[in-house]
Amino acid sequence: MSKSNLLLELYSNLSTTGALTFSSKALVNKMLTYTDIEHAKLIVELGGGDGSISQGIIERLSPEGELLIFEINQSFCHSMRKQFPQANIKIICDSAENIDKYLGGRKADYIVSSLPFIILPKLVTDKILIKSRDALAPKGKMVIMTYSYHLKKLFKKFFSHMEVKFTFRNLPPAFVMICH
């Protein structure tokens, strides 16, 4: 799928993508600065979209590492399956609410999210955050990209430690929230 078709898909589904454009390389690098992907065994991405963040993770992922990418948009899933055919990359076309069904009791070193929590129903958001928190390894982190600083209060309900960073180098500028 071409970038223009991906953008058309993005704008056609604003209620589920919650983004005006795809994540910039600068934002992806900022998010992944707070991880150690090279030494991670299991990484989960929530909201794969066009694969911008996925690509950054894969560039850092060791051959022994595994990446599970959750995405509900069928077109994005299809495109990412073509883009990332590696055996250690799994594209899961399902809601992040079901993360526990795909982990098989394993714990993630990192969960990286670009989900539009600001527009998701409260019950869905709470379920995703509870299941994400429970899916993390003891020293694991959830790194969340968001456009709203106000979501910090929400994330604090589920995570005991939080850091908030900001980057202008994205359209629109974005917050990176590191939760553990």
UniProtKB/TrEMBL annotation:
Keywords: Methyltransferase, S-adenosyl-L-methionine, Transferase
Gene3D superfamilies reported for this sequence: Vaccinia Virus protein VP39
Family annotation (Pfam families): MTS
Domain Methyltransferase small: 22-164
Zinc listed as a keyword: no
SUPFAM superfamilies: S-adenosyl-L-methionine-dependent methyltransferases
Protein's UniProt name: rRNA adenine N-6-methyltransferase family protein
